[in-house]
Amino acid sequence: MRKIRVALAGNPNVGKTAIMNALAGTSEKVGNWPGVTVQKKVGKYNFRGFEVELIDLPGIYSLTSYTLEERVARSFLLKGEYDVVADVVDVTLLGRNLYLTLELLEMGIKPVIVLNKIDELENYGYTIDKKALEEVLKLPVVEVSAVKRKGLEELSETFLRVATGDLKPEGFTPIYSEELENAISLIEMKLKEEIGENFPYRLRWFVIKLLEKDPEIIDYLKENFKKWKKILKEIEKIEEEIKRRHKSDLPSFIARERFLLASRIATAGIRNIVELPTEKLSDKIDRVITNPITGMPIFFLIMWLVFKITFDLSAPLGDLIDTLFSDVLPSLVERALSGAPPFLISLINNGILAGIGAVMVFLPVLAILYFLMSILEDTGYMARAAALWDNFMRLFGLSGSSVIPMILGFGCNVPAVYATRAMRSAKQKLITMLVIPWVSCSARLPVYAVFTAAFFSKNQSLVLLSLYGLGIALALLFALILSRVMGAREECEFFIELPPYKLPAWSVVINQTWIEVREFIFKAGTVIFAVSVFIWALASLPPGAPYAGESSIVGHFGKLLLPIFEPLGITDWKPIVALIFGALAKEVVVGTLGALYGTGEEGLEKALAQTFTPESALAYMVFTLLYIPCIATIAAIKQESGTWRYPALLIAVELTVAWTAAFAVYRLTLLV
Amino acid sequence: MTLYEVKEGSRVKILNITGGHGVKNRLAAIGLFPGAEVKVVKSPPGPVIVEVAGSRVAVGQGMAKKVEVERL
Ligand SMILES: Nc1nc2c(ncn2[C@@H]2O[C@H](COP(=O)(O)OP(=O)(O)O)[C@@H](O)[C@H]2O)c(=O)[nH]1
């Protein structure tokens, strides 16, 4: 079958995901662009004997090289490893969207214009003259509604015709004011004197980007042109003239010209304009929900609802899965294999079934939370929440869109890591997912509960609050450090577009949730499973050793590590083994302690009172809060960042900080 | 006057934006450049919301203080 590769380009929020969904269904694969943490989505479908591959480029407003997303999209477009570029345009924001179209045309790309959200036009004060647009842009234009599934057939057909050369779009060349055109010709002439055979760019585009002071292009100039200094001087002269006449620097001047040209083209394609009232109901709502005084209570109410719905709905399902994998199936196995060596039964029950169970318990929480997050995103609330928090998060070098993932972290770090997908800036996204593990998730609560009950029954809440506070403080501190180190400040979102309020597109929300859950099972799930079985092996080997007992490998490990934990006041190997098991999920620490002290979870408090002092109990809680994230979180971070480098770094940093903080707490509390 | 100080509901013309090329370029791509006319939908506390080229855009307080405007 012949293959066609179609790259989807467009502004954020134009409906690229919806188009991908409508055309390629759930065939979508989510990954990362090579070497960066920018998400890459690829979908496939068959059309008239062709296999069409859709490649989703990051949503961008322009094609400069200031952000990672822009660089990713641009270098992909420059490489040209595609048959068709589809420029997805939100028809309700035609003028603004055509800005990117003009940039594509400047690059020499002749995209298919996909006018999406055509169904929305009923509510807008205009209609579209497709013919007129085609004539001006000299490009094929297809009207579609991804959500209502209209125009999809024609869209695929257009892809096909362009890919096979049946349709050869001529493409309009954006021509700007005389002043700018003169400047372009002047620099073009200067460059031509030196231009080599294998100059990889379109000259006109290269010149425009030089005038826009594009960092990547300026670097190329400096490296490849001997007379680069002269050329930059020339550009400076041009800029001075522009400044004198228009009170604007050169890059802004060009952007403005491009924007105005885009608006003019849009006007040519729009008919039957009726004046709509400019004050909308949504503006009134926005004033309330983005004002901190009213907006914060609303925000916390919504987050509370999200948590309540998630945990109320997922708790029974989680219990069911838990019973299935730790009771029902194991006893079935024991009966079916009665007489088999205990080692084999242990492998199946404590290794394999427990491993599958460890993956499955996440599914209800993950699916429900992801579903609710998609609704918040799709209705338009997410953008408002980001705007509401922007000012505060900026103090820590993050932007407002990192707040929701971080707050989800209190419930469970795993969906919190996945929630960072809604963030636009790749660097901010990476930082957010790296600081989420500091936030104390609900799985750590059972550990605090047992220890505070045993040692701090008088001021239980104070201890709990301090632990949560410590987690938040470290999260924000590391956000600040990372954003400095990675230079993420320049990549802050300088503005947040507020899309119109609307009902969620259910089919998209459901499809995306399913894709998400599937990706989790196959990517993170395999890691979680493998680690579970590995830990089982550590606990059961050598054969004959009691499970996780003193003579097992993990028991030896515990004793080996004892000298490291003695400065924290921990003098027994059992709590250390519990920490190793806690890597699976932090609440497992309690169960393991119960099993190792032979008390079960009920009598554990007494046993702990004999091993720990209040000071070392506090140190142990701090260590549990801060040491490595659970394996599911690690796997999620690996899946989202696309490399093991970040999770590995995170583990190293967390272990160091956990030990240091626990040591400090132990020593300080001994003093008072 | 800066965008931060504009009263809710008024229309303004942008005179100047302070910042690096990255900021200016990206703001310009959505229609916020010297000479552009926008309507202020919401003023502080909280972000400033402007209507520009048919869409609503929230601008943080820090950024809003860097946008010099005049009332129309
Ligand atoms: N009315 C309407 N809304 C759409 C259509 N396609 C997408 N949307 C909505 O536009 C918003 C952004 O869509 P999404 O696919 O997430 O955009 P992306 O950022 O380009 O991937 C969502 O709220 C969608 O429900 C459409 O054809 N008609």
Verbal overview:
The complex is a heterodimer of chains A (672) and B (72). Chain A is an alpha/beta fold and 672 residues long. Among the domains of chain A are: 2-164, P-loop containing nucleotide triphosphate hydrolases (Rossmann fold), CATH 3.40.50.300; 178-270, Helix Hairpins (Orthogonal Bundle), CATH 1.10.287.1770; 534-671, no CATH class. Chain A has helices at residues 16-24, 68-79, 94-107, 130-137, 152-164, 178-192, 203-211, 215-224, 228-246, 250-269, 281-289, 292-336, 342-360, 362-379, 381-394, 403-411, 413-419, 426-435, 445-455, 460-485, 506-540, 553-565, 574-582, 588-596, 604-611, 614-626, 631-641, 645-671; strands at residues 2-10, 29-32, 39-47, 50-56, 84-90, 112-116, 127-128, 141-143, 270-271, 495-498. In chain A, strands 2-3-4-1-5-6-8 form a seven-stranded mixed β-sheet, with helices on both faces. In chain A, strands 7-9 form a two-stranded antiparallel ribbon. In chain A, helix 22 (553-565) crosses helix 23. Chain B has helices at 21-29, 61-64, and strands spanning 11-17, 37-42, 48-52, 55-59, 67-71. In chain B, strands 4-3-2-1-5 form a five-stranded antiparallel β-sheet. In chain B, strand 3 and strand 4 (55-59) form a beta hairpin. Chains A and B meet through helix 3, helix 10, helix 11, helix 12 and helix 15 of A and strand 1, helix 1, strand 2, strand 4 and helix 2 of B. The structure holds guanosine-5'-diphosphate.
Short précis:
The complex is a heterodimer of chains A (672) and B (72). In chain A, 63% of the residues lie in helices and 8% in strands.
- Class by SSE composition of chain B: alpha+beta
What is Rg of chain B? 11 Å
CATH fold type of one domain in chain A: Rossmann fold
CATH level 1 name of one domain in chain A: Alpha Beta
CA-CA gap between termini of chain B: 12 Å
Give the amount of beta strand of chain A, in percent.
5-15%
Mean pLDDT level of chain A: 89
Relative strand content of chain B: 35-45%
